[in-house]
Design goal:
The protein is α/β, with parallel strands linked by helices and 506 residues long. It contains 17 helices and 24 strands. The protein is 33% helix and 23% strand. The strands form five sheets. Strands 10, 11, 12, 15, 16, 17, 18, 19 and 20 form a nine-stranded parallel beta sheet that branches. It has a seven-stranded mixed beta sheet with strand order 4-3-9-21-22-23-24, covered by helices on one side. The longest helix is centred in the middle third of the chain and has 19 residues.
Length: 506
């Protein structure tokens, strides 16, 4: 199939627009199956300037990848999609989520937080629900429907592997970085204010070996949309040897590496107690802080006012290593906790990505909260801009996942595209389409989503998931899950005692 362009897009334009794929400018422009015609606005990538730009009234020709962005594009046999009235943006890149677990917590953990653990919900609440396989699969379907409808086309799933989980993910049509987690210690409390660690070194090693097997299986998956990540669960639940070995495997396989670190005051003080170093300082010392490292949350660093640490160079250490911080504001904001602050991280040169660590898995809402929380923490509206957060949710995440072929609209990039209806009432007036989307419309204006060139959302409906069935299955799963709460809670409390309803039932 040969692409002809009435107003020819030259090789120089292709090279300028996507410097990481310059070699593609020299090959035949073929493989086009769809053309979005005369989009009202395209959030395009300017490779020369290294940033996103708005372009008006242009076409996008694509198959599995984007072939050209320009005027009056034509290809024999290509499906033509009317782009008038639509903003087309790259699919969002979500670098930290737990879609098989978090939807089960809806309505239960919206207002929890342990006073004895500085209001984190990790140590008292995380393990009280009994999760079965059917419930986790329902959670996946609900979460992925939310993700796709909010414009996410690439997800990082940090999960304990379960039977068939790769097939469940692939069936949704999303692109996924699978991160099978493993650890050597469980968190244990018997009083709600002291944290102990139940160590099982052998079990941690078994999890490590299983993770390697799952990552290999993901790479071979017939969908072609799965890839892997090494993910020791938390910096405080793995010993130095396991952390080193996991990072070494990530280097050997040339894949990303992620662990939770600096996510609570408890883990900050535990690491300083053990090693005399902050979590970031410890990561640097043992050689696991690198340009492939993603720090899950990275809130309680040495500069955070709550830690009162005498030295303050964690941000510089992260930036010099080329590592990434996965920023997930919603789960922490619910408990009065926040990264301090997104503008400061950027100013110090830290690469940032965005994640949906908790329900709902709405990336656009997460981006909006990242902006507002950043402004509140900075005390001004200039240190957390939409442009910065959109970059974090696209190219920042792509950099973290070592995928220069996602997170941007440019020739050679994957055809992961989102079409937003600029004519929708919630988008009006639409002077600045991204502002209207993130600050006002959110997922209500997302109409069509493509992953690898295949449409997975059409007219706001997810084509790969029966949402009503998934929601019904999730409800039944939660009913089963709460039955075991008194058995799993250190104090034997019921779910209504742990998570009282917002109002008394009359």
């Amino acid at each position: 199939m040969c692409l002809t362009i009435a107003r020819r897009v030259t090789s120089m334009i292709l090279i300028r627009n996507y410097v990481l794929y310059t070699e593609l400018a020299m090959v035949a422009l073929d493989g086009v199956t769809k053309i979005i015609r005369r989009a009202h606005c395209v959030v395009s990538w300017d490779g020369e300037q290294g940033g996103h730009v708005y372009r008006r009234d242009v076409d996008i020709a694509f198959g599995r990848s984007i072939v050209a962005v320009g005027d009056d594009l034509e290809a024999d046999g290509a499906e033509v999609l009317d782009g008038q009235g639509f903003m087309v943006m790259s699919g969002l890149v979500n670098i930290h989520s737990h879609p098989g677990e978090e939807p089960l917590n809806k309505g239960l953990r919206d207002e929890d937080g342990s006073p004895g653990f500085d209001n984190t919900s990790l140590y008292e609440y995380l393990m009280v629900l009994d999760r079965d396989l059917a419930g986790m699969q329902a959670a996946y379907r609900v979460a992925f429907a939310e993700l796709l409808k909010s414009g996410v086309t690439t997800i990082c799933d940090l999960a304990v592997p379960t039977e068939g989980w790769l097939d469940v993910i692939a069936a949704t049509g999303i692109r996924a970085c699978v991160a099978p987690m493993f650890r050597q210690a469980r968190w244990v409390t018997d009083n709600g204010h002291r944290l102990d660690y139940a160590w099982d070194i052998a079990r941690g090693r078994e999890g490590f070996e299983r993770a390697l097997a799952e990552i290999a299986q993901a790479a071979r998956h017939p969908s072609g949309r799965l890839f892997g990540m090494m993910a020791p669960s938390q910096i405080d639940t793995c010993d130095e040897e396991l952390l080193r070995d996991a990072h070494a495997e990530a280097v050997s396989l040339d894949i990303p590496f992620q662990t939770h670190a600096g996510q609570s005051l408890t883990d900050f003080h535990e690491m300083t107690r053990r090693h005399g170093l902050t979590p970031i300082g410890f990561m640097k010392k043992i050689g696991i802080l690198s340009d492939r490292t993603i720090i899950g949350h990275g809130i309680f660093l040495d500069h955070h006012p709550w830690v009162h640490w005498p030295k303050t160079d964690d941000l510089g250490t992260i930036a010099r290593a080329g590592a990434t911080v996965a920023h997930c504001p919603t789960v922490f904001a619910r408990r009065g906790i926040m990264l301090d602050h997104i503008g400061l991280y950027r100013q110090r040169g830290v690469n940032l990505g965005i994640g949906t660590d908790v329900y709902p898995n709405n990336m656009l809402d997460e981006m909006r909260l990242a902006i507002y929380a950043g402004r509140l923490m900075a005390g001004n509206p200039r240190d957390a801009t939409l442009a910065d957060v959109f970059a974090a949710a696209t190219v920042g995440g792509a950099k973290a996942l070592r995928r220069p072929d996602i997170g941007r609209i440019a020739p050679g990039a994957k055809a992961d595209l989102v079409m937003v209806d600029c004519r929708a009432p919630v988008m009006q007036p639409c002077r600045d389409p991204l502002r209207s989307l993130v600050f006002s419309a959110s997922d209500r204006a997302v109409r069509h989503v493509f992953v690898d060139g295949d449409q997975v959302v059409k007219d706001g409906v997810v084509l790969t998931i029966d949402e009503a069935e998934a929601a019904a299955d999730l409800y039944e799963a939660q009913c089963r899950a709460v039955e075991g709460v008194p058995r799993n809670d250190w104090a034997g409390r019921t779910i209504d005692q742990l998570a009282p309803p917002s109002h008394r039932w009359a």
